[in-house]
Amino acid sequence: MPSFCPPSEASSPVPTPLFSVPSTPETERDDCFDEPAALAAEDAQFVLVTGGLGYIGSHTTLELLKAGYNVIVVDNLSNSFHHVFDRILMAAKLHFDRVGGRCPRVELACIDFRDRAAMAALLAAHAVSSLDLDLGQDQDQAHPQGRSNITGVIHFAAYKEVHDSLRNPLKYYQNNITGLVDLLGLLDQYDIKTFIFSSSANVYGTLAHDHGTLREEHCVHQPTTYRDADGHEVVSEQGCTGITNPYGRTKFFGEAILADLALSDPSWTIIGLRYFNPIGCDPSGLLGEDPRGVPSNLVPVVMQVLTGQLAELSVYGSDWGTPDGTAIRDFIHVSDVARGHTAALAAAHEQRVLSTFRTFNLGTGSGHSVAEVVSAMENVTQQPIPRRIADRRPGDVASCVAIADRAAAELGWRAEKTLQDACRDLWNYLRFNPTEFCLS
Ligand SMILES: NC(=O)c1ccc[n+]([C@@H]2O[C@H](COP(=O)([O-])OP(=O)(O)OC[C@H]3O[C@@H](n4cnc5c(N)ncnc54)[C@H](O)[C@@H]3O)[C@@H](O)[C@H]2O)c1
């Protein structure tokens, strides 16, 4: 069994992968900057990605580059590492070497998105004069800071640990809510009004107890009428039922704030993407889930058991009333989640979104139990994963699975990858990063 190695700052430098690594394409990168540099190409358009070095953000940045978007990443490294930026560039270069074409531009700003002065400087560096946009004087008065070449924002940056949020609720409300409100005000000044928000299946709270499979209308911010699976008309009132922790509440409140904003000003296009349980990583083995601190999600803990950093996995409850007794979740490959963002952005830019605020589940539509995930990982790795049964955790539910039909119908997006794909890619990531994870 490999020896213990804490996943700390010491793991930050880019480890030596087991395959040939392309050199960083210097012409296409800008180094991390505190003072945003003036743009070289005035007419280029960008997508701003907050939290773009985190687990889902890094995969989404890569998918955006593959789809041809120029990207500005904002991250304060509170739960990620600077080397992730180099990994994104390497993975993008591998992609464009394979398929041909030129990698779009990507910039990194290592700033806190709540730092108003730093964000204002970044947005000012991307402001486009009214002359360039051929706007009238009225437009300038409506947007005192001018217009922008940033055509949309994907907002991942947030704190996300359920149990930490129970201990430190104000920390969560400050970053996830106060930060969001201030960011929206700043974006408004630059007329940046396409906004994609990282929401969560957490907004359904204990509704999962009643429904098992969850559709967007189960949690709404305006009264909504829909037909259920039996064709009966159902009226869904706004509000939420049984959200069990401050983290989940920040996602519900965040959505509610965005819904109110979109209602008050229909020039916004706002999409809330409700992720179910993202797992896996990019098949290149260059990107993965590498949080600072102690992880609590199933897969990062399984990874720590596989690398010997943890002796065993705690399985919370084996009496859930599911076929094997362990809880069922909708595990979705993170690259599918990432592609959900490019699909949402395209729909927003092409004005195909049915309302100014719209939510979409990003899930596969089918569930796997915790025991199934562990055994799938054991099959791929050919290593036993020691586990013990622990008590159920407060707030957990037996089953939480998405109905993902809305995203398929309106965004043209479906999850494509399987649980086995996710396990194989995770194992690649572990093997390609031996120094980071202490595999020998
Ligand atoms: N991973 C999941 O299972 C999951 C499920 C549902 C929703 N979400 C949401 O998706 C988003 C991304 O999740 P993730 O798993 O990639 O998390 P992550 O922690 O890996 O990524 C978040 C990134 O945001 C950065 N960040 C945090 N606060 C910041 C700030 N104030 N300024 C600048 N950067 C900041 C962190 O350094 C990190 O790189 C979060 O909003 C999370 O709540 C995640």
UniProtKB/TrEMBL annotation:
Pfam families reported in the protein's UniProt record: Epimerase
GO BP annotations, alphabetical order: galactose metabolic process
Cofactor entry: NAD(+)
UniProt-listed Gene3D superfamilies: NAD(P)-binding Rossmann-like Domain, UDP-galactose 4-epimerase, domain 1
Record carries keyword NAD: yes
Disordered, as annotated region: 1-29
Protein name: Udp-glucose 4-epimerase
Phylogenetic classification of the source organism: Eukaryota, Fungi, Dikarya, Ascomycota, Pezizomycotina
